[in-house]
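Issue 218. Parser rejects a valid record. Input:
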Amino acid sequence: MRKISTIILLAFSIGVAQENTDEKKAENHFIFEPDSLSLNIGETGTVTIKFVDGDGNVVKNPFYIYGRPRRTLESKPRISDSTGVATVTIKPYKPGKLSLSVRSISQKREDRVTGSMPVEVPFPGLDRIVFNDPESSVYVGTYVNYKTEVFDKANMKREESKVSLSSSNTDVADLDPYGNLVGKKAGKITLTASVENIKESVEIKVIKNPVRKMSLSADKDKIRTGDVLHFKAKAMNRSGRAVKDIPITFSFSGKAEYGIGLPASALINEEGKFVAETPGIFTVMAESGGFSARK
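Output the parser choked on:
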């Protein structure tokens, strides 16, 4: 019985010692002065970081200094010296709720201590809207998609900003829900993009559509699944001359060769490159201004 008691007491002593060691490790922590910052993009701020123990004494151990998320916050220096104290200059490059993080340098992962402080970086005000290579003309009966980008005063692209488009004369050309400008009749309009209090406009001419017929051709009429077949579509005027700058839309329908109710799967891009994923018979169509051709 005396041996058993000794073993139990020894195990208890080891457990208490281990617990005390863990508590001692946990007592080490970082102090940030100030404990938070609010900075605009491009501004700099200074933070003093101390690595201390539970009694507030400086732990003379170097530590890493870095921003989170990555590449949002510059910190100098990136590694402290061995004094356990560092005066850090930080500079944000992106807006949002960022953090300045630290981690003590130690060979053993379990001995590492981490800490962080919040850095609030407000979004700059919007500055401008840019049209991406806008078409200056649209044919009646066709549509053109107008894409825009929004930049703020820090010259950062603001992809979350929702731009609305409007036509100065919806009888001449109007917009569908996807940002496509549809030509209705010959004339001129002003297309305006707006977000918050920012606006940008382009002048667009709607031209009478000269297309009177379409042709569609391909090098083959039988391919294997996975093969790429390039369709060539031509829009022609009344005299049979090609209208080169007219937009042409490709589409397809298909019937699977096997299986009951199995869908015919394929893809075709805006350049007329077609690839079938399932065996079957497919009909490819090219359309422009109400005229179409199929193969």
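Fixed in the parser; the record now loads. The two ends are 96 Å apart (CA to CA).
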